[in-house]
Amino acid sequence: MRIAQIAPLYEAVPPKFYGGTERVVSYLTEALVNQGHDVTLFASGDSQTNAKLEAVWPRALRLDPSIRDALAPHALLLETVRRVAHEFDVLHFHLDYMPFPVFSQMDVPFVTTLHGRLDLSELQPVFNAFPKVPVVSISDAQRAPLKANWLNTVYHGLPRDLLTPREDVKPEYLAFLGRICPEKRPDTAIKIAAQSGLPLKIAAKVDKVDQEYFEREIEPLLGSANVEFIGEINEAQKPAFLSGAKALLLPIDWPEPFGLVMIEAMACGTPVIAFNRGSVPEVVENGLTGFVVEDVYGAVAAVDRLGELSRKDIRAEFERRFTADTMAQNYVDLYAQMLKSQNRPMLRQVS
Fold first, then answer.
1. CA 194 – CA 188 distance, rounded (Å)
2. How many Cα atoms are found within 13 Å in the side-chain-facing hemisphere of 340?
3. Which residues contact residue 342 at a Cβ distance below 8 angstroms, ignoring those fewer than 6 apart?
4. What pLDDT was estimated at residue 350?
5. Which residues form the Glycosyltransferase subfamily 4-like N-terminal domain (predicted)?
6. What are 111's strand-pairing partners?
7. Where in the chain is the domain with CATH 3.40.50.2000?
8. How confident is the model over 194-209, as pLDDT tens digits?
C-alpha cells in the first residue's frame, strides 16, 4: 500500500526533545515500512526515517528562532501534499483539522488522527462544518466530547524492543515521568509518595510556559528528603529509570487523550498507579497492569497492593496490546476498509 504520513512541523520525527505526536508518527511510519508498505513521510528536514522523506521545511520549527509565523510552513506542507495526493492509496494526517478545507474537496482517501484534547468549545463548530471528514481517536474517552465522523479508535504503540525490563535493577522508589505542568499534578505525586513512605524520583522537563508554575508550586516541594528531581531524560535512560520504580504515578487532573508514559512503564514491566481521568481506564487494566484510583487516598492504598502484581505479566500485556506493530496493523486495516468502501484498488499490494 502506498501511504503518506503527514506530521506537524513543530518537532522532527522522531523529536529531538519532548514531542508526543511526532514520536507516535515515527513509530507508526517505521512499523509500516517494516511491514512492507511504500511510505512517504512529510515532515521537517531534520527528521530520521526509513521511509521516503519529503522535507517540507529544513528543520523543526521549535528549533528555529527565526520562525515567527508557524502557520506559514504548514500552509506550504498542505500544498505540497495536495500536489502529489493522487500518488497515494491513502493520506494520513496528524495535523488536527488543518487539512479539512482542502482535502474534503478532493477525491483522495484521507484520514486524520486527532492527538489532543477535544473538550474545547471552539472545536465542535469546525467539525459540524465538515461532518463527513473521517477521523480516528486515540482513546474512546478522547472522542466523547466531540461529534464527528469517527472511523475507529487506534491506541498508540511502541517498538517492541525500544524499552525493556532491566533485570539488574531493583525497584526501590516511585516514579513521575514526562512534563511538569499543572494538569499532570507533580505536586500530587509528591504527596502520594510522602504518605506512602517511599522515595519519589521525578524525571520530567519544564517548558518555558510552565517555568513559573514549577518555581512557585513544585520547586519548594523538592526540598523534601525523599524527592529527587532528575530533569528530562532520553529514551536510552528510560529502561533503568522505569525498571527501578515500584510504580509510575500518574495523578493527572485533565482528560488525558492517551498517555504514552503509561505504556512506556508497562514496556519495562512497571505498574501504573493513575487517577481515573480520560484514557486511563482504557490503558491501565486495574489489578493487572496497575491500579486506577480516584484520589490520593486510593493511590496510597494502591502502593500497598503493588505486591499483588506481576511485572512479567505487565510486560506481556504491553506486548499484546501496545506495540507499534499492533498499532500499524490496526491502521492498515482501517486504510483497507476506507478503500473498500470507496471501491478503490490499491496502488501497491503488500505480498
1. 10
2. 6
3. 109
4. 56
5. 18-121
6. 92
7. 2-157+323-341, 173-321
8. 999 999 999 988 887 8
